[in-house]
Task: structure prediction
Amino acid sequence: MNIFDPAYLKNEFRTFSFSHFAALAILLVTCIVMIIWLKKIKNKKVNLVFCIVLSVLLIGQEIMRMIWYACINEFNWGFHLPLHLCGMAIILGPIMLLKKNYTLYELIYFWGFGGAIQALLTPDLLYEFPHFRYFQFFVSHGLIIIACVYMTFIEKFRPTWKSIIKVFVITNIYMGIIALVNMITKGNYLFICHKPEQPTILDFLGPWPWYILSLELVGIISFLIYYSPFFIKDMIDKLKKEKKNRDQ
Result:
């Protein structure tokens, strides 16, 4: 049966199955190889080509996703536009990569790691390997992670404490806009109208609408977690500097 066929359900996707762990392992290896390779060659032209290819893949897979829904006559304006945080990260990612825009990096860093990692760990996915949607789901979220890792380790971008406040404010403003979009389209972007059908972290945050407030707290905690490596590095550098000054 055609792997693009929506009726192709050889097996329903299961969280923490072999195919799930395999996709996560491939993403981890890809990030490590990318960092080692690009750091070793240190070539701006190669970096530019890499960013262009990554940008094309980001937009290309998103277009394929919407075309697939249209071809099977299931495209819905309330569910299939790239308006979730990960979808916006995909749309804004190429601009960040090609323009080296720091504000977009701040957004995509926290949206990417906060949204894409959560999505990868608890996928809202029905189709199992080797269906098209299985590949598209993991490729789309994986590319967001790769873009963030590239900007952080290769371009040396990093968030600050102000980034956390800025992204939190922008995210809430965006959520307000999406609430209106959901009213117009009868959709569920950002999952603020109801929880996903597949098991996710939202299942542990209480009933609607209280889980939205819980999600605000989870968002802040996740921002702090993803900022913590830089905080630790800054503290270590500060201690080293103080020790050096004392020794002098």
In short: The chain has one domain: 18-247.
